[in-house]
Amino acid sequence: MFTLAFFLIFSSSYALYNCSKRALHVNPSFNTWVVKRVKKTQFTSIIVLGVSYMNLQVLYGFGKGFFVFMSILILVNCMLIALTPLGIMKTKTLAFLFMLFLGIEYLIPFINAS
Length: 114
Hints:
The protein has four helices and no strands. By secondary structure, the chain is mainly α.
């Protein structure tokens, strides 16, 4: 579970880096703006995700809280990818597939219980 969380954080960072590199190739004047934007969004997203994860741990306990945290993580990743100057369809599709997969994973315990 934690491996998946770290993988998602690193993949979103790589997607942001990739978007900024492509934006620089298109327009070099984006240089400082893109770098500042990527650094700010990554830093704030890590803080927000950490705080939301701790809150969810307290509210829901470990099992359910982890899956809620993962869905929030993926939603934030989608927003970060959308914030980059040039959104890449592949990264958006990948983020959507992760969200779909974890949504199904989150619903499985409820389906089994009923």
